[in-house]
Amino acid sequence: MWDYTDKVIDHFLNPRNVGEIEEADGVGEVGSIACGDALRLSFKLDDHGKIAEVKFKTFGCGSAIASSSVLTEMVKGLTLEEAQQITNQQIAEALGGLPQEKMHCSVMGREALEAAINNYRGIDVRHKEEIEGPLVCSCFGVHENLIRKVIRENNLSTVEQVTNYSKAGGGCASCHPRIEEILAEESKQRVARTAKAVPPDAKKRPLTNIQKINMIQDIIDKEIRPPLQKDGGDLELVDIVGDRVLVQLKGACIGCIASNLTIKSHVEAKLKEFVSDAITVEEVHE
What we know:
Arc Repressor Mutant, subunit A; Sufe protein. Chain: A; elongated
């Protein structure tokens, strides 16, 4: 049984702004009843270009209703540019959190808002997305571009997480291999972006302590921990002493016969590649 916050329960039992606006300025529809979740969101602007009225209709679970309800409260009084900056994580946070298995409801809300704004601007996004993003999950009608989007915005690393945030892979599982491929491709692109952000001669120049700490923590969080967490393990940065990086293994990594290989071939190799050839990594124990 999932543990819902009081805010989720309140917005489910007492949803705000339910309905549809006649002669709306923008209307967005996402999902489908056949796939289990559908949301229609409409809004009207005032004379200053701010959202004066917004309503929703949804077919879905309590989390879908709550996410849609709180989103309508969040966007009132905002310009379209401001409303577009709202993320699915912010929708979940406004509800005091959502179970990981229900995060796709916050994504659906954000997608409906974006569709409504694009409808107002005359952009046929649905057709554009279907051309640019092949259908990956036929059970829930999820296209590749949405999968890539939730991976990037939420730093996802496993098929299970992708399912939680988009529903893709939650049916027959035949799309799991393709989702794994997309995850691998996004991971490589993330590495490339990280490498590009570091000046080519950065490893030749002395780094300040703060630069070194920030770079090491960034590589650990984005490139080292996700693969470990996928297998039930984890790693924590304990300290940095000169070029010595002290880490502590967590979860399934504790006591693993391959822990030394993990430290040297995975952790140390990544940090040498992106931060400094002089780095050595040592495991510390509690």
